[in-house]
## 1
Amino acid sequence: MFAIRPIRLLVLAALLATPAVYADDTKGDAAHGKELFMANTCPTCHSVAKEDNLMVGPNLVGVVGRQAGTTLSLMGPSENLKKYGVIWSVETLDEFLTNPDAKAPGTAMIGILSDPQQRADVIAYLSTLEK
Ligand code: HEC
């Protein structure tokens, strides 16, 4: 009985620790997302300053909630993204950023975030860029 007790405690500790890990998985951290956005060269092609449409990719201010491919950029409106046809949300951005070319074949968008937590963080950051 006494020999088993420490093991039981360990199991209990592991069980208690697990839900916290899952909670972290599903929730994005916007501050960390901003760092990731900068570190993954997203700003090379995307402005996050209002009304600045002079970059290769669309301006990302207000991206959550808008129709894909409707924002101007140096390259004009995006036919690939218009065909894709989604409204950008946490879910559609998550799918797109996993592999943009799989969702919008031929797209010039090369930003890929393969790590689910990093995607959640970057999407949380994008959600803060309101008009
Ligand atoms: C080399 C330039 C380039 C880089 C780097 C890049 N993108 Fe893009 N992105 C584009 C282009 C161009 C489009 C428009 C796609 C098209 O025309 O097919 C786009 C489209 C998007 C869209 C959809 C915008 C809309 O209004 O429909 C999102 C969201 C996006 N990019 C996020 C990101 C993120 C996040 C990163 C960094 C991980 C990133 N991009 C890195 C060029 C880039």
## 2
Amino acid sequence: MKNTYPRRISQALGAVGLATAVTLACGVQSAGAQTSAPDLAPMPEVKPGNAAMIELGKHFFFDRRLSGDWGRSCASCHDPEKGWGDGQALSTGYPSMEYFRNAPTVLNAKHRQRFLWDGRLDGSDAGTLVRDMITETHTMNMDSRLMQERLKQVPAYDALWKTWRKDDINGMRVFNVIGEFIRSLETTNAPFDKFAKGDADAISAEAKEGYALFKGKAGCVACHNGPIGSDGKLYKTGVPEHPDVLANPLRTITMLRHYATSGMPNYMNARTDVGAYAITKKPADIGKFQTAQLRDLKYTAPYMHNGMFATLDEVVAFYNQGGGEGSGLEPLGLSATEQKALVAFLLTLSGDPVIVKAPAEPEMQVRTFGKN
Ligand code: HEC
Ligand code: HEC
């Protein structure tokens, strides 16, 4: 069998020092090898999660009392009506701050191998991700003990908790409960999934042409593969810096603070988002980000770690020109019709809108010391 991937992709990845990853990600085949080429896959059938935890997690996800100033819930930045992101290029962050990256969708959290744009957290541990969102100064700025005591003073939550366990509301478990909720949100009914399971008419002829380009001439599948279209690995595609990261000092500060807390050497001199380097400290990782998932793009514009592209047409045009500075990707030479077909195909990976209505925030009943 022959390696079916365009040579320029292997070259590009080689150029950023990822020879090993290429072998794994691209399934580069030597003569007679049994490994199959990487491809997209339909969403897997998964066991439903713990219903009592999901119900509790849903309430907590929408409750502003989980943030330090009582002003932000998870849904402020991951709004179901905006594809579970916030619809902005760069996230607003906790009041009085501005963040330096885009707020991604939480859909398909269960299927992520790694979390966050720089891939810094393990995708199998949603509880830790939730803890960071709640306790980080630039997102919800909440102390987990204060959160626990606040939630205990909501009788309706206490009652709901008791449907799950006998003990008191506990901070660590709150993180896991919200994790269980976001792990229940996933793409359903996407035309691509029906197509992949054998319904040849589920996607248009144009989208089929786009799929062929995705796996062939355009080479997207080398990095975007599996059920959500991400290999969970880090690459430099050279997306240009969002000008507001430096123009707005509040964004520059959150960026530098993120680097400082990551222990990045010489962080004060950083003037661009270095991506995974802040975590790994390997110079080869400067400017690398995790392969984004391709599910539900219909609802999640703008795109990339800094929302630099407002439309999928712009994303495809970016790849067609060979990505950005230092990417090592080469121009694809796609015609206007081919680029349109690729976009039509990408949209078949989106499912029905996943809308969860925000439950009302139940009343608190302030406890008096010594009386209860
Ligand atoms: C102030 C805005 C804000 C709030 C509030 C917030 N997030 Fe986020 N969230 C972000 C941003 C920004 C990122 C990306 C950060 C990065 O990659 O550096 C993110 C990333 C994530 C991701 C990773 C998705 C992926 O595919 O990598 C998940 C899951 C998530 N948030 C869930 C939550 C949950 C659950 C809550 C509530 C406990 C929450 N977020 C609260 C802004 C927010
Ligand atoms: C070398 C690996 C690689 C190749 C090849 C590649 N991508 Fe990507 N893709 C990435 C990475 C990494 C990101 C995240 C980049 C960032 O945020 O700065 C990304 C992001 C995206 C996004 C943004 C999704 C979002 O939610 O923001 C889309 C859409 C996308 N790629 C489509 C494609 C298409 C279409 C092709 C083929 C023309 C392609 N990619 C080829 C690695 C790759």
